[in-house]
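User: Hi! I'm working on a homework problem where we have to compare a predicted structure to a textbook description. Could you give me the structure for the chain below?
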Amino acid sequence: MSIKVGIISSRFNQPVVDELLQACLDKLKEHGLESDQIFHQTVPGALEIPLALDLLALSKKYDVLIAIGAVIRGETYHFEVVSDQSAFGLIQVQLNHHIPIINGIITTNNDELADKLRLLRNHGLIDRDTIGLMGYNSRLDTFQAVVGNWLIPQTKDIAIQRIKNAAYYDRGLSEIKEITIPPRPKDYKIVYHLYIVFTEDRDGLLEHCIKEGIEAKVHYPVPIYRQEGLSYLGHKEGDFQVSDAHAKKIISFPCDQHLSIEEQDYVIETVKNYFR
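Assistant: Happy to help. Predicted structure tokens:
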């Protein structure tokens, strides 16, 4: 069989799309196609699929094109726009190039399926601290990539400033006997994505800091091995005692590169005032 197939799939809602893609590949091979007869490329979302298929059609290398994606109804009109426009775009490509396109972009109003898909696309998080199932983070789109490209040249300067901020915190918070600062290995360069310390009265301090306008947080109150998404492993509380102890005592303070000395002093003084 000399037929050639071009497939474009979206990366949004990737766990579902991956299953659709694999089913498609299995069926094509079941009908006798070899791997070198199948071309596959991904795009960010369903709206980008028609453009990518149009480029494949322009190449005149393919006998049939396949679109694979998943669109889930949310709380806004965006669902209708994406569903309608992606379908319309596929029709336009067919009409313009006289090439058959199989529309494998699924949509759903099923609440149970939609809930599962929403979890999968956001790390499987039910809320900030609760993992319902192991998911993905496939939300990088073109706009975010532009921001990332802008930040990359600044990475070194950002890391240097964060290290300075952490050292300033260390000096100030080390004066508080109720605060324990984690070891700072001299042979490691910690860039402080998070600035974390330990305290026995973590919940009280957290409530006090939030009340005083400080964006203190806990990363995270439930260790990952005890999350619902990993319950199938059969672990119980106490299996990982260091993780359990940390989850009860850790607290994070703002440490980003935009903080002023005055803001850091306010954090330090607020913590001191709580323990006085």
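For your comparison, note the following. The chain has a mean pLDDT of 89. DSSP finds nine helices and eight strands in the chain. Good luck with the assignment!
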